[in-house]
Amino acid sequence: MATESRHGESVTVEVDINNLESASGPISIERVSLRKSSGIETYQRIQEVGSVGPGGSISVPLTTSFENAGEKRLEVSVLIREPSGATRGYEYPVSIDVSE
Rounded CA gap, 13 and 28, in Å? Predict the structure, then answer.
């Protein structure tokens, strides 16, 4: 996923989370966060987003801004709880080109 922004302006990354049609029940979205790809600095974190039933989806907007120009390599991290109670984590790369 790639997007563009100007330094100092807000940029929003829309994260679409889908549950499989064949899922045995709803998944609970425990946490969604946008962070540096190194995982050290988190720009935005949303806890307890809600649940998504089988075949359903939810869109979660994560917004941040950058003071310096350049390419920002980020990561969207999603933690879900399955109907069985097990938790799973997923990471997706995001690239943002911040111009002057």
Answer: 20
What is the side-by-side order of every strand in the sheet holding 2-6?
Answer: 2-6, 87-99, 70-81, 27-36, 42-52
Q: Say which residue the tokens 């029940």 belong to.
A: 25
Q: Are 62 and 50 in contact (CB under 8 A)?
A: no
Quick count: other Cβ atoms within 10 Å of Cβ 13? Answer: 20
Q: What is the pLDDT of residues 49-95, one digit of tens each?
A: 999 999 999 999 999 888 888 888 999 999 999 999 999 999 999 99
Q: Which two tokens stand for residue 24?
A: 């045995």
pTM of the shown model: 0.83
